[in-house]
Amino acid sequence: MTTDISDEELVARFPGEPITHDNAAHYRGRLRRQLLLNRCDDCGRWHAPPKPVCPDCWSWRVAAQPVSGDGEIFMAIFLHRGPAVPGVDYSTPYPVVTVELAEQEGLRFTSTVVGADNAAIRIGAPVRLAWIERNGVPLPVFELKESV
Ligand SMILES: [Zn+2]
């Protein structure tokens, strides 16, 4: 486990985010622009959101591991309004996508898509991981592999 910054500093870097023992490694990874999700050391299954115990084999040997960030859009919604967040423009409107990651069927991560027209953000579209800065910290986002 990486202990490059203290838990207190980690919480301070992500105000408003629900940082827990189970997801602290994920947030530490974000600071290095590395997308980490929990994987079971015993059965090899990935799972998200993070839990202390593998939901498949009940092993406690769960550790955050890097994922490629490649995947396909599983679900997309477009927010016309929402809480004021720096960098979020609801007039576009703002896309929220759940991506099914290439690592494993059913392993999904929710973020947004950058650099694409909303009309091109479709179910099944292949995406790759990208990083932007929001609130002074890196945010994992996705971009379309083929821009339309
Ligand atoms: Zn397991």
Quick overview of this protein structure:
The protein is mostly beta strands and 148 residues long. It has helices at 7-13, 24-31; strands at 36-40, 46-47, 62-66, 71-79, 94-101, 108-111, 126-134, 137-144.
Estimate the global geometry from the Cα principal axes. globular
Q: What is the quaternary state of this protein? A: single chain
The amount of beta strand, in percent, is 25-35%
Give the SSE order as H and E letters: HHEEEEEEEE
Describe the largest sheet. Answer: 5 strands, antiparallel
**Overall mean pLDDT:** 94
Percentage of residues in helical conformation:
10-25%
Number of helices: 2
Bound molecules: zinc ion
Spatial sequence of strands, sheet with the most strands: 6-5-4-7-8
The helix-and-strand class reads: mainly beta
Q: What distance separates the N and C termini?
A: 40 Å
Summed up, the domain count is 2
Contiguous runs where pLDDT drops below 50 for at least 5 residues: none
Please compute the radius of gyration using only Cα atoms: 16 Å
Number of strands: 8
Domain ChsH2 rubredoxin-like zinc ribbon: 31-59
Pfam family, one: zf-ChsH2
Domain ChsH2 C-terminal OB-fold: 65-131
InterPro entries: ChsH2_C, ChsH2_Znr, NA-bd_OB-fold, Thioester_dehydratase-like
